[in-house]
Amino acid sequence: MNRTGLYIALGVTALFVIVYALFPQLDLVAARLFYDPVTKTFPASFNGTLIFLRHSAMVVAWLFAAPAIIALLAKLIWPRKPLMMSGRKAVFIVFTITVSAGILTNALFKQHWGRPRPAATAEFNGKWDFKPWHDSSGACPRNCSFFSGEAATAFWTYAPASLAPVTLRPVAYAAATVFGVATGVLRMSFGGHYLSDVIVAGIVAFLVIWLTHGLLFRWGATRFSDQNIDRWLTEKLLASRAWFANLWTRASDDFARPHDTGLPRAFWWLLAALIGLTAFRIVGLKLSAVDFFFDEAQYWAWAQSPAFGYFSKPPLLAWIVAGTQKVCGSGEACIRAASPVFYLGTSLVVYATALRLYGPRTAFWAGLCLALGTGVIFSSRIISTDVPLLFCWAVALYAYLRLLDERDWRWAVMLGVAAGFGMLAKYAMAYFAFSVLLAAWFDPRARDLLRHRLLWIAAAIAGLILLPNLVWVATHDFVTLKHTGDNIGGRDGIGFHPLNALTFLLSQFGVFGPIVFGVFLAALIRPMPVAPQPADRIMIAFALPPIVIVAVNGVFNHANANWAAPAAISVTILAVAILVRLDASRWLKATVAIGVAMQLLLPIADAFADRISIKYLAKPDVYSPTIGWRGLSEAVAQVAKANGAAAIVADQRYFTAALIYYTRKSGLPVYSWRTSPRLGHQFDIDRPLAPGAPEPMLYVTGCQTATRAATHYSRIEELPFISAPAGRRTSRILFAWKLTGGRGNAAPLDPCVR
Fold first, then answer.
1. Fewer CB under 10 Å: which end of the chain, C or N?
2. All domains of the chain, ordered by start, with CATH?
3. pLDDT higher than threshold 90 for residue 381
4. % of residues, the chain, pLDDT over 70
């Protein structure tokens, strides 16, 4: 990293500016090398091997940074211990990758420089005008083309190359250059970036690295020593800990324990573990090849028109998705990132609850076991209503316990707000009321609280928060309540299915974790070798109602595995408390080990979801329900444009949801064609196919005939069916027709006759 490198970088910059000033269309020329005008796509973006190489390149780059990140995290946990590696090298690695591959690219330029990506420009079948690299006035709202984040990450490997032994440094620089160029070409071949995006990424990454290397290693006026950096980190981390501990102690006496920081060591261990776990999960989401399941696509569609209610769910999740989208865009990884962040918060609230009831050791293990529960690990990969529900339930439980001990209006307000927003997350929050009643039966203090005005003030606050949703439901013919009733009771009526209840109970071993749920059941059916504590009864009271109610419903109808999810809070705390009381650390460690193994396995599997096929299973492509939606939707958009369609209509919710999300950049409106006089989903309300809809209309359906459309359109032209792989052995298929000559018929479409 001497002046020669700087001169080369400045020379490349000057050459870049001159060449692009003389040949401003060079980006389009380079992009056309990867574009297929027949299919109007960038074929490389569908190539599984190239997709794998793209993901692998990012893994390789971050593996170079991993030792430095681990060293600084260890320093965060043990500030008095020396760094595990050279302080200058650790700071150099982490700072440069954060600035070049994170802040400058993704946080600043890509979010505010409106240059559309190649695949989104009109020259390559997109909807926006091409903009040169220096023009930020494009129509792209966020996560735009300039400049390439992945290329910057790949070129960042100049940083570890600069730390190689002197004799190997030229080879390391050459390898980093090849790696950066190859990654940049991959992004160009996918239609994700222009040539100029890649070149600028390389220049910026190099200049950041060169400047930081000079500040830390070369220039006498600013050169640091490893010892100075280590000492500075120790001082600042200890000071930060003391400040945070003081703030936390003032906010809540739960954590006022004798310790040099004012907090139990267990808390810092847990916090570091949760932050690392959350970061790992978010990275896993970024690398995931799993498409939005149609429910997730549906939530995104709802979020585009925030309201106080929706057909099948209350509105909180749609609000969360809308807020998340404003922060980091509408990509799958961004929208799903809310889940691991919420679970971090839920785990900390579980820690606070267990600390109050059982002490710091139980609190640490409860927070960790909740975060690494099998159901939470699975749920952290998707966006669903259970995510905010568990957070609200945990906060409400904590506030309720505080209210048991202190008749303080602040805890009543917290309880009411948490319960109200919990109801806006999912109506399963209503189980909380049954738990309060059961707790009153178990515990004299809970009976006294049931008669106290503060509890009813909390209930009133919850009701006020829920009120706008109830008004929305009432003004929409109570569709949400009808749907919820159908979902619980089934449209086929009441039957007798005891195996359903048994299946549900067995599934809870997978939802809560095999050891956690096993210990909970054991505590219910047989005496423990140690005496129970009063807090145990409260935890049982807040665990049993969801489990029992859903199991009983399963006997007569059906019961989904996640319907009792809120019970996970109390089940986990109680099971961990019992294991700590029994000094059964092996079982606690086994619980964490199972969670860690699953946490490592699932993101890896997600990254290769489109390539995993287990031939010995009845359905070998285990990811088939969650992949293929993007490919199918993009193929539908291509067929629509190729046939001059002005809009797309589908007659099934899952296809409609996927099309709305994955064709959002095509400019084509997507409509829902009802197949019943009764509303079937939210799209029948928001996007109904009505007389006067744009024509020609591309009609896509799983039904192989379109004769039923003749009562609505006079001309029906059959098109080739549309398919996309949903795994190695599975395909997702839609049949397509071009419709013109609308008859003005607003009646629902007749059912499919196969």
1. C
2. 3-226 (no CATH), 252-603 (no CATH), 625-742 (3.40.50)
3. yes
4. 95
